[in-house]
């Protein structure tokens, strides 16, 4: 099954090597989570089912989300919510990837509808900044989607993967809300907007970032993928956002030396 070239893609082949070493008993260190993508052709439309398997799978739900370049943001959100709800309805002790694929093959056509191109009416929109906290951000597919969608919507900020995960987005209210609705529709263990800030005046100094990038603050605790909080605080300070650290994490920051 899925033996044709390009149908099944493992995002990082080194993870497979780590898994084999662990299964063979040559190490007790847990391997990273497995990231894979299943490429499906359904009604002549290409769908990508991106999957992140934790160590607890199948007792824990896999992180999944679906992409199709012809679906708009709302269609993507509806599709990902429905497939997430379907996976959640299945028995947790049984593998569910094939069931999810079958569901997608049976239902994908319901989300492909021709849309009339809408013209956006330009107006003076309020600028906002959202600080989004996640239990973890490991999936490389999700991380790519977070960045790609931010670039598409001209949103600035950053994404810090690992455990915990932190995302900052800033831009117009409509663009940030579109981004947030699409991203939160993916399957997450826990993700929420912890703090929102709004530009109260016409100040040009509200936006703190020039682009949107992924930021990795390396920590020696590689096993658990924890980021260096001191380096994060320094990064926030460099962008005049150091004040937000205590509000997000509940502790005073300590700069890395």
From TrEMBL:
CDD domains the UniProt entry points to: RWD_RWDD2, RWDD2_C
SMART domains on file: RWD (SM00591)
Transmembrane segments: none
Every RWD domain range: 11-111
Database matches in InterPro entries: Phi-like (IPR017359), Prp3_C (IPR010541), RWD_dom (IPR006575), RWDD2A-B_C (IPR059181), UBQ-conjugating_enzyme/RWD (IPR016135)
Organism in which the protein naturally occurs: Asbolus verrucosus (Desert ironclad beetle)
Name of this protein: DUF1115 and/or RWD domain containing protein
Recorded coiled-coil stretches: none
Highest taxon listed in the record's lineage: Eukaryota
A Pfam match: Prp3_C
